[in-house]
From TrEMBL:
The keyword Coiled coil applies. This is Transposase. InterPro entries: Homeodomain-like_sf (IPR009057), RD_transcriptional_regulator (IPR051839), Transposase_8 (IPR002514). Keywords: Coiled coil. Residues 67-94 form a coiled coil.
Length: 103
């Protein structure tokens, strides 16, 4: 009786781009509501709405955020930036080490 009325949090699931595209297409047809589609496929309504918004951004229908390509490029640039900062830190340490050795 302790857990009565409490829902356990969902485990995070990942979906293929093809699956998301199919769900977005169903939503855009307008046959069923977003809520009904989410319920039919055991998805959260929020996730489905976000997929629709992202598809609109990617199609150029919205300009209130980054497209999927821009998000991927940003992630790649951040990874590269992090790696370069680590490289600079290693070079600083090596420079300090060799400067100490030559005295």
């Amino acid at each position: 009786m302790e857990h009565m009325g409490k829902k356990r949090p969902r485990t995070r699931r990942s979906f293929t781009p093809e699956f998301k595209a199919e769900i977005v297409e169903l939503c855009q047809r307008g046959d069923r509501s977003v809520g009904q589609i989410a319920k039919d496929f055991d998805l959260t309504e929020t996730a489905v709405r976000q997929w629709v918004v992202q598809a609109d951004r990617d199609a150029g229908a919205r300009d209130d955020g980054l497209t999927s390509d821009e998000k991927a490029e940003l992630a790649q640039l951040r990874r590269e930036n992090r790696r370069l900062r680590e490289d600079v830190e290693v070079l600083k340490r090596a420079t300090a080490f060799f400067a100490k050795e030559t005295r």
